[in-house]
Amino acid sequence: MGSIVGSLLVSWFLMSVGLWKLSEKMHWKKRWMAWVPGLRYYGLADSLEMQGDGIGCAVLEILYYMSRIFPSNSDDVRQMIVVTLISLVVLVALYVYRIRIFMRVILLFDLKRRWIILWLLSEWITLFILGIGKYQPKEDISFLGGWEAGMTPAQISGVSDAMNSMTASRTGLSVALRERTVSSLGKKQYLLKDIAMNIPNGSMVLLLGGSGAGKTTFMNAVIGYEKANADVFLNGVNVYKHYNLMKYRIGFVPQKNLIRTHDTVFRTINDAAKLRTPYQVKAEDRNKRVREVMDMLGLTPVASGLVTKMSGGQLRRISIAKELVSDPSLFVLDEPDSGLDGVIARELFTRLREIADRGKIVIVITHTPDRVIDLFDKVIVLAKDSGRVGRLAFYGSPDEAKTFFGRDSMEDIVKCVNRQEEGGEGLADTYIEKYALKVGKTETEEDKEGNEEEVSPDE
Amino acid sequence: MSKKLRYRGRMGQIGLYLGKFMRVFIFQNDWKVLPMGAVIAAVVIFVVGQNLFVTQEGTSTGAFALVCVCIWIGFFNSIQIVCREREIIKHEHRSGLHMSSYIFAHMIFQLIICAAQTGIILLICVVSGVHIPEQGIIFNAGIIDIGVTLLIITYTADLMALMVSCLVHNTTTAMTMMPFLLIFQLVFSGVYFELAGSVMAVTFFTISKWGMISLCSIGQFNSQPMVTLWNTIFKFRNIEYMGRKPLLELIQMTERDGRVQDFLLWSGSYNQNDMYSSDALNVGMTWGIMILLAIVFAIVSIISLESIDKDKR
Questions:
Q1: Are residues A396 and A428 in the same domain?
Q2: pLDDT tens column, A240-255
Q3: Domain count, chain A
Q4: Does B2 sit within 8 Å of A262, measured CB to CB?
Q5: Which one of A40, B7, B80, B195 is most buried, counting C-beta atoms within 10 A?
Q6: CA distance B125 to B150
């Protein structure tokens, strides 16, 4: 009995020493956790921005210790079996969490994967070696957190002032997004901050940014689907305030083709039209509109065909037709060209250009912008600042963008604002500030006049 | 002054989605659920149909098997129906789809499917020579009472699966849940397995319990003969007591007097179950409870889908 207690104490001490040293290397916020069984893995997970896993691990560990401290009455065999089974399940779940956390540690310290075997054989020896050894984490560990939101936006001068100086326009799309946050485990996380712009009607706008820069989040905020702390006006109507009506005037084509495949092309589009067009529109006008959209997108020849039989390009066009059929004023497309070859993608963007030419606003996210950049009027560049918060790095014409960033292509622009761990140049903060200064200078008092009045959505 | 714009309301959307479900049913070959149900019903009726509504034992076993068939068919109809198109619904919700319309359209459509399946099961019963009671309790014909009961069981199970399909986020989880739901229905019906005190309360929420009560009541369970006692006596007929074989003598005497049927009815009278009382109130109550459960499942389905916008990307 004495030897068991002794070995437990030794393993606890060595593991705690190892974790104490590790906590120094990994900049734990609460280093004392290294000494507390049940909280140690939480401390480790917290420093790796895996708070969710850390909490799961802590809860399971406490449950497990409780089941060991208060063993069941050994006389009752059934009770003993149940408690043992529960302990076993808890233990398995606990190790799943721990493995997940330790795998991240391996990645952080750039170790061989075989370390996991050593860790499985003896947890405390492994952590002791890692702690007191010469192993050091990679300098920048932010990439380990994937694309999670930042806690604190970078302090970049002039950005908020520039945003405040912009005012809503009565025509077109006006966006003044102060912040878009989420709460995770009681902590406020920033997804987007300080994004403002006025997009005139008839514009085709390219939305650029690296993975995780917040493009889709921004789009969702603009169309009112995921509300942000923002003022969004479409032709003078507050989108958030009148969302129930405005949602019919906004078309959104998501990355995936969200279509029931076992229905005909015509019925799919016609049903969307029935759902999204007002009662005031006569059936014949609605049918005419369906036919027009199908003609425009080259879907008439396959109208009676089943959606499941369509090619990738045709599916994208059906997705677009479903939204376009309601004649939206704002048309947002998330990677409409994904999975399409160059020729078909070009054809698709030409159609989108035609839609914009009819006085609509078309905003497009694409990862291959250069092949169709001539079709766009404006470019929005979003970038993650050093605090990992999505910010506006540029809004203007494609040519202005090239001059502003000193790059020849849109892909190079994305590269220059992307973080270094993503293979970029990590200049996001520089351009965010530069753009804020540019906006601050160009915004005139003239723009502010006569733009305050809000329009009723029924007008 | 401009006219206020109005968009397709809930009723209009029900019609729209009903048409869509019909087309998907045809194009996606979902009609296969009809022969599949027929095959399952045929197999079960082939095994248990002979004594169904003839003896108490046959009625009890057969009714339970029929209830299980209906629950199985109902579950399979809907278990994947919503979760497989969850992302589509989410997208359509932001385009103005009302979840109540969507679920109501499903309810109408599934009612049609369940009615067709019930018709097939009844047809198989008739063709297989199942002794269906001529006199009904609620309606004049027993076949209508049984048909309505089978329809309500199938439909309630269908809506329970629809609810699960709305609660889970993908088909894998839905299919993982299904065996648990089935086992719950079988074990907690309180018919074949003795349940201790407080656990009996759980049986209230099982379709199998109410379905079983309804079928046994319509099948006149309490007026039927019981064969178990006779069979047991027959099994022990050669046991001797003080140089005689009293059980064999009893059998011979009963057979000689032509009173076997009387004996079976007499033994059945000691095996009556209050729950299976063949009156309109009892059958109506079981139908009512199952319909109530179906309504609850539908409400939960709508409520759970209303929060579909919170699904993570």
A1: yes
A2: 999 988 888 999 999 8
A3: 2
A4: no
A5: A40
A6: 12
* A283 vs B: CB within 8 A: no
Q: What is the CATH number of the domain that holds A167?
A: 3.40.50.300
Chain B residues touching residue A246 (CB < 8 angstroms)? none
Chain B: nearest CA to A295, how far in angstroms? 23
Q: Are residues A39 and A129 in the same domain?
A: yes
Per residue in A268-321, pLDDT tens? 999 999 999 988 889 999 999 999 999 988 899 999 999 999 998 899 999 999
The ipTM is 0.83
**B121-173: per-residue pLDDT in tens?**
999 999 999 999 999 999 999 999 999 999 999 999 999 999 999 999 999 99
Residue A290 forms part of a structural domain: no
Does residue A41 lie in a domain region?
A: yes
Q: Are residues A444 and A342 in the same domain?
A: yes
Res. B41: pLDDT tops 50: yes
Would residue A384 count as lying in a domain? yes
> Does the CB of A425 have a partner CB in chain B at under 8 Å?
no
Domain holding A57, by residue range, is: 2-136
Structure tokens at A213: 């820069």
pTM of the predicted protein model: 0.80
Do B88 and B56 contact (CB within 8 A), yes or no? no
Query: Which chain A residues are within 8 Å of B94, Cβ to Cβ?
Result: 225, 247, 252
Does A235 fall in a domain?
yes
Residues of chain A whose pLDDT is less than 50? 143-147, 444-446, 448-450
Does residue B73 or residue A50 have the better pLDDT? B73
Distance CA A391, CA B280 (A): 70
Distance from CA of B253 to the nearest CA of A (A): 52
What count of Cα atoms within 13 Å lies in the side-chain half-sphere of residue A392? 27
**Beta-sheet strand order (sheet of A361-365):** A237-238, A229-234, A173-184, A187-199, A390-396, A378-384, A204-208, A361-365, A330-334, A250-253
Read off the DSSP letter of residue A134: S
With beta carbons under 8 A apart, name residues in chain A contacting B28: 262
Same domain, yes or no: A334 and A424: yes
Cβ count within 10 A of residue B170: 12
